[in-house]
Amino acid sequence: MVKTLSDYGKLKKGSPAPEFSLKGTDGKIHKLSSYAGKKGYLVIFMCNHCPFVKPKMGYIAELAGKYGKDIQVFGINANDQNEYPEDDFETMKKVANEKGFSFPYLADETQEIAKSYGASCTPDPFLFDAGKKLAYHGRFDDAHGEAHSKGKTSEMEAAMKELIETGKVTIQEMPSLGCNIKWKR
Fold first, then answer.
1. Segment 24-55, tens digit of pLDDT
2. 62, 164 Cβ separation under 8 angstroms
3. Would residue 61 count as lying in a domain?
4. Domain containing 165: what range?
5. What's the CATH code of the domain at 61?
6. Does residue 185 lie within any of the structural domains?
7. What is the 3-state secondary structure (H, E, C) of 44-103?
8. DSSP assigned state of 33
């Protein structure tokens, strides 16, 4: 496991969200452009096996349930499924069901979407405003590798609330920390 921080080299605040068209665990193809009318869009690069993602899965599901009326959440797994079979599509479906994901959990098998976002770790969350411009790219909280309840901060939830209330985010970005995305060779 290589610990990696969020990379800020690709998307900057105000950058448009790269489009995607990916298969979800529900068997449907999900396109970012098919989702409109929300106050925000949260795109999280995540996976099934990462010890930094697993403790956050319940919290991600909770945030999606709590703010889903206003913010559309997407989970995207870009890990190499051949080298990391625990991140394969069948296991994604199992995890989504077990964790009660109410949001699309999508497979980025070519890894092109992760590259277009500049995603580098899991979890790596990107919060976009109503116009699908990057408003916040940072961690969920300061409890890296632990459940949200162990943390002292809630940056992502604060950013989501501010985005819903004002249409912008002023919360200071702190990089997420997690496992590196498992790139294909």
1. 999 999 999 999 999 999 999 999 999 999 99
2. no
3. yes
4. 3-180
5. 3.40.30.10
6. no
7. EECCCCCCCCHHHHHHHHHHHHHHCCCEEEEEEECCCCCCCHHHCHHHHHHHHHHHCCCC
8. G
Largest Cα separation within the chain, whole Å, is 43
- Is 132 contained in some domain? yes
- Check residue 1 and give its pLDDT: 63
Percent of the chain with pLDDT over 90: 94
Alpha-carbon span 137 to 43, nearest angstrom: 10
d(CA 116, CA 114): 6
* Token code pair at residue 138: 């940072």
Q: Which tokens belong to 92?
A: 């994604």
pLDDT given for residue 8 in this prediction: 87
- What does pTM read for this prediction? 0.97
